[in-house]
Records
---
Amino acid sequence: MVSRSAMSTPKTQSGDGPPTAKPKAVLSLDLSGDYDSDSAPLPSVTGTRSCRHSVSSCTDVTSEKTPLLAPPRPEPCGGSADPASAAPSGGRCSSHLGLLLALFAAFCSSLVNALVKGLSSVDPAALSAFRFAILLVPAMAVAIRRGTSIFPRGRRRTMLVRSVLGTAGLVLKFYAMRLMPLADASVIVLSVPVFVAVFARLWLKEPFTWVNALTIAGTLAGIVLIVRPPFLFGGGTGEGYSAVGPVLACTATVVTSITYVSLRQLRDVHYSATVSVFSLTAVPLSVIVWLTVGDRSLPTTALPWLLVLAVGVLSFLVQMCFTKACQLELAGPVAVARTTDILYAVVWQVVWFDQVPGMYSFIGMALVVISVLLVAARKWYEARHSQQKKPTEGD
């Protein structure tokens, strides 16, 4: 006869010691990353599981020999559990929420660009300073609450370089928005991911494929059609604006591409630290640019100040929504949703600024958008292909 105490003993008990239950593995996600430079960071994974850039190396700390994928769990939306392309979703399909957040973030980003162009009473460099001052408040609050060191050892030089380059890219982008049509400037800045491959090859020794070469050629062709330099097309530049705006937009694209590369070395730093250092660096640098080359006058009515506040709040929403979208959905669909920023920019340009893009601008926009989508599709394919090739431990 089996006693009641023996019947109640868990199966995980071994030996004569007290019964012990195997602890449940907990996987928590922190909002990581910084979208001030429109980056797409990896979600930061913390908890009792540790992931080291590949599914096959994800293990439960209760047993280093126990793979994360045993027993099998439902895959997140899109069929990939690779943390480089999607964060775990606990077996629930979250693709609709992720895409909605990405679309909302693109909408807010287009509103920020429209406000930057329309706030003629505030110099772009001053607007950049106010924007970062507003972003600094929630970032510091999160860092203090978590006890995060905002200037961790071993990352300080990279964080400073990233902050200075990011500030330069954003200020140049704001001035370009003011000096050329909104849609044209937006599509040039959107091409940043295409040029990241060049600097990643130079500094990180990452592979450079024919797809990268094709997308760069398509992007450059699109930019030429948008800008329409006089030595190729004759007459004026673009839709009758000077060449200063396109030069600033292209320079901002190159600088921001370099910032992307530096961000890859800060993936283990919490977003509250990167945003805090970025803001603390950007505020004084933006003020220096404003006092040196900008218009030192400030608005005297309440409405412009409310719009400045809206720029800061919307920028914070863009960061949070894009970060959460990358945690819930694969990078490919998020990149597709991100390109809707161009559609919004065309609408704002026509409705608010009474500027209708010409045929060449539309063709150039199409070339740039297709190039960006090709880059996203290639990354998505590589993530899925590498995931299928990795054998599951224990098979």
Note: The longest strand covers residues 63-67.
---
Amino acid sequence: MEVLRPALININGRMYRRNIIKEEHYEEEEEDVSYMGPPESEDLADEETCDAIVIEETDKGYRCAIDVPSVLYKYIIGKKGETRRRLELDTKTSINIPKPGVEGQIVITGSQKAGVSSAVTRVEVLIESFRKKQPFTHFLSFHMNDPKIQEGFLSFKDEVLQQCSQDHGVEENIFQNPAKLHLTIGTLALLNDTEVRKACEHLQECQNFIRDITEGKPLPLEVTGIEYMNDDPAMVDILYAKVNVKDRSDKLQVIADRLVEHFVSAGLMVREWDRVKLHATVMNTLFRKDSAVEDTGGARRQTTSEREAFDARNILKTFGAYRFGEFKLNSVLLSQRYSTDCSGYYTSAGSTTFS
């Protein structure tokens, strides 16, 4: 990190500077993020909390309660309570945190409103910083476990194994589970039930623009052709099926991009790309060593040495225009990672329909 150009965090329209300090408590470096106020000012009065936070006046001074998922408490407490003590000392406040594992509110009290405001700001910045390190728990998906598509996929799998099993790395264990065929739109780290409910509410809010795009009807899709994700077809890690709207319109892409835009604006998703890369994974080398990786949507990170690529040249040559089938898509799902429902697909925490 450059000292003169530190990384900045934007929280509710306010800019904060991220500083790196070494903490033995964590395996990684702990990030200490502080409010980036006017350079010439160090007074607490110059630190203002976000407008969405309400600071109440009490008989003893001022009080503010912040909703924080319990998994993030440890980052506010710090090693042996060091982070909390530093915050309390710097802001002349008291920070009350619920017991580990108990969902509740962090309550900040102090004799001066400016001190409480400063403490709230700093706690919010810490939360935002460490939230980004949490593994995702849910993802928005277009499910493709339609019986016709499943049948087409299983036929593809059988034919590939019959004709290309002699090619390097082509094995049965790198094929997707047919019950979990899907298109991933974006991932979310929802850290408690309140955040899951909030995400479900936001998904319902998207129904109007989705129905405007689909004209209130299911979207006819066709799954035809395969593609790979790297530059060398002889060393492939992921092979995916191509999905298109039957009328060749961009409706599916527009819906996906609008969904991401909505959830990013709501602070529930981090934007990774300018537009969603819609692809349905049919083969993934991560499945080779860990069958549970299907529950991550293929997003779990592994080093190159942990993956054994496969030679897809013959598969691409023989099955490049393979027709998996057609189906009508009628919903967007908030799917839960590491879960399975009665159909074999991911458990749905919420959904909205096209019609």
Note: The chain is about 30% helix and 25% strand.
